Hints:
Keywords: ATP-binding, Helicase, Hydrolase, Nucleotide-binding. It is built from five helices and three strands. It is α+β, with helices and mostly antiparallel strands and about 140 residues long. The protein has a domain at about 40-130: Ribosomal Protein S8, Chain: A, domain 1.
Amino acid sequence: MTIAEQIAGKLNAKLNYIPKTAQEEEEEKEEPKKTTFRKYEEELEINDFPQTARWKVTSKENLANIQEYSDAGVTIRGTYFPQGKEPKEDEGERKLYLSIESTSELSVQKAKAEITRLIKEELIRLQNSYQPINKGRYKVL
């Protein structure tokens, strides 16, 4: 036994380390390592918001920014249905919504927060820029 082996043996004894046998190492290599991935999803319905708010959130540029910022995938799903018209559930139709997916819950929350911020920002802008439309062309004096 060499000096290095003696020192390693003393160190192993102090640490209560039991070295693995060659057979145990082979068995470990044969067993595939099981890694589990969790997938977090959330859906945010945008069908009933004004058209400009929907456009703001679903524009390519804003979707790319949201995905880059939050590290979550955002997909536009469903079909737009005007107010008062409902989708046919039996045919699998759904109102327009955003599907947010990621491997971490924090990413989903960040994406949802950014989307709601953009929608609120656009709604406030619309509310402040409201100008009544003139009903008639002429004024009666």
